[in-house]
Write a structure and sequence with these properties.
Elements lengths: L1 H30 L15 H8 L11 E6 L6 E4 L5 E4 L3 E4 L5 H15 L5 E7 L3 E7 L5 E5 L5 H7 L7 E10 L5 H13 L11 E3 L1 H7 L12 E7 L3 E6 L5 E4 L6 H7 L7 E11 L6 E5 L2 H5 L14 E6 L8 E6 L5 E4 L5 E2 H7 L13 E4 L11 H7 L8 H12 L9 H5 L9 E2 L3 E5 L5 E6 L5 E4 L6 H7 L7 E8 L6 E3 L11 E6 L5 H26 L1
Parallel strand pairs: 6-10, 11-15, 16-21, 22-26
Antiparallel strand pairs: 1-2, 1-5, 3-4, 6-7, 8-9, 8-10, 11-12, 13-14, 13-15, 16-17, 18-20, 19-21, 22-23, 24-25, 24-26
Length: 555
């Protein structure tokens, strides 16, 4: 209702605007203003709008358009504005009626009139500043109403001024009603439908449709036309969806518009992917009972070529299922990273290849390779559903006091587990020749060979915590001595955290320290002896009370 009231108010105010416009033009023409001498700032016209609207001569001229007019024999060009009645003042000629004409037709008319009035001389004129005119925006937009626009703005720009589309609004079935092409009876009917909110009945009056989705994909101008004076933008709700699934470039569900064909859906999904199977493309469709669903094979290539039978009309809730070629460009490589001569990717077949063979292809290990820390990871065990352990996820949120001993052991086990890591010892294989560790690698596997650290980290309650150079003959206590010895608050609880497994062991249980291991000397806990004394006395007092009570009862 607000939209129609605003439209009517604009129509009522038209004569007043016309009078003011004419006075402004007279003053400007009498002063003979030159370009840039005053007035409002010239509108910026983008290259796209210039090529499609101005250069082609399709621009619709109306009251308020400002032209730069140059006539030979006059020192400076004139800025001349189209009058309220559609006339344009031209020096030496007078007022020429060009309102309602396209720019190309107006150019021809002015040139012809000039040659009739002035036998000698030339005239040149260009559109200097496009006028602004009201465009009603009705339907599912955030702020419907009348918005000011110019003839070099697209529908999408006017919708942005209206706050954009609502969530349920159609972005592919936006109607542009050309009221300038309607008779008075049709205009009255449009006003009545807008006032009653019967937007669906306005579809019959539309002469253009904007499809912003296809415009974003193709960039074709006719999907997002430029507005003109007298246009009304109608934004309707969505009426359904169609889906493009499987081996397409952009699988998704898209808004359905009556008249959509298979080619339109392929455009929305950016076409088939390189791995699509042309012999296995199906369309799922509901029957007329809206319950039964069937499938039919379709020919994508023929649909894109526009062949009539293949490029059929779509129905709401149609699904295009494009199957992929099985095994298309399947993963067929392993990766070697770290301390090898030629790290990178190596091709393997489906049957796999032995670990030793891949290391030989990589040129062998460097002198800084830490074989003891080397590992082989099977990536397919890390990603996907195999990586999720429901029991471990459950225990993460169970408080420690509420867990059973079995729960704690399971949680510790899973915490130490390195997903996807295969049980391989590179030292056993390449130093000792144990072929039991020469496992078969599969596509997607990763071999990681870290740099040999040659240090052991000593942390905790020592004088100088830090990294100590590794020596095979050193024991745990040798490394502690190299770190300055135990600190004054050091406890006798010395742990060794193994670099390979992350396992914590007591120092007495470690026969040999390996490079990368961490020695952790725990501190003695702080004790408040006064608190201990008072708590002990409290317990003794309670026990004494119980004993005295028992003795008094038994007497």
């Amino acid at each position: 209702m607000k939209a129609i009231l605003m439209v009517l108010s604009i129509l009522v105010a038209g004569p007043l605007w016309a009078q003011a416009s004419r006075e402004n033009n007279v003053i400007r023409l009498n002063q003979g203003s030159a370009p840039g001498s005053g007035g409002s700032q010239t509108s910026i016209v983008g290259l796209e709008a210039y090529r499609e609207v101005i250069e082609t001569g399709k621009y619709l001229i109306g009251s308020g358009d400002v032209f730069l007019v140059y006539v030979s024999g006059i020192d400076q060009p004139y800025l001349s504005e189209v009058l309220a009645e559609g006339g344009l003042f031209v020096p030496r000629v007078g007022v020429i009626a060009i309102g309602g004409l396209r720019l190309a037709a107006a150019r021809k008319k002015i040139t012809a009139r000039f040659r009739e009035a002035v036998k000698v001389g030339e005239i040149d004129f260009e559109l200097s500043r496009p006028r602004k005119f009201p465009v009603p925006v009705v339907g599912l937009v955030t702020a419907p109403g009348v918005k000011l626009a110019t003839g070099v703005e697209r529908i999408s720009q006017i919708l942005a001024k209206a706050g954009g589309l609502e969530a349920s609004a159609s972005s592919r079935n936006i109607r542009l009603i050309k009221t300038s092409q309607l008779d008075p009876g049709q205009k009255v009917a449009i006003e009545r439908e807008i006032a009653t909110g019967s937007l669906g009945n306005l579809q019959d009056f539309s002469v253009a449709r904007a499809d912003l989705e296809l415009y974003r994909i193709t960039g074709e101008s006719h999907y997002n036309p430029f507005v003109e004076d007298g246009d009304v933008i109608l934004v309707s709700p969505q009426i359904g969806q169609v889906g493009a699934l499987g081996a397409v470039q952009r699988p998704d569900f898209y808004e359905f518009v009556p008249g959509d064909r298979l080619r339109d859906l392929l455009l929305l999904s950016l076409g088939a992917a390189p791995n699509y199977d042309a012999s296995n493309v199906l369309l799922f469709r509901y029957e007329q009972d809206h319950i039964t669903r069937n499938s039919r094979r379709v020919d994508i290539a023929a649909a894109l070529a526009g062949e009539g039978d293949a490029n059929f009309l779509l129905h709401p809730d149609d699904w295009l299922n494009v199957r992929a070629i099985p095994g298309f460009h399947a993963e067929s490589q392993v990766r070697v990273v770290g301390e090898v001569q030629y790290p990178g990717y190596y091709v393997v077949g489906k049957e796999g290849v032995k670990l030793r063979a891949i290391i030989e292809q990589a040129g062998g290990f460097t002198e800084n390779a830490s074989l003891a820390e080397g590992r082989v990871v099977r990536q397919k065990f890390i990603s996907g559903e195999q990586a999720a352990d429901p029991e471990y996820e459950r225990l993460r949120f169970v408080p420690v006091p509420d867990r059973t001993e079995l729960d704690n052991q399971y949680f510790i086990m899973k915490s130490r587990e390195k997903q996807g890591q295969l049980s391989v010892d590179l030292v056993e294989l390449f130093k000792k020749g144990n072929e039991a560790h020469n496992i078969r690698l599969l596509p997607g596997d990763v071999i990681a060979v870290p740099t040999l650290q040659q240090t052991v980290t000593v942390s905790g309650a020592v004088v100088r915590p830090g990294a100590v150079s590794f020596k095979e003959t050193h024991t745990v206590w040798d490394y502690i001595d190299r770190s300055g010895g135990l600190g004054w608050r050091a406890s006798q609880d010395v742990l060794v955290i193994k670099a390979l497994s992350g396992e914590k062991k007591h120092a007495k249980d470690v026969s040999q320290v390996q490079p990368g291991d961490r020695i952790w000397i725990r501190e003695e806990p702080e004790r408040n002896y006064w608190t201990i004394f008072t708590q002990s006395m409290g317990v003794v007092g309670q026990v004494a009370t119980v004993v005295l009570l028992f003795v008094s009862i038994t007497k």
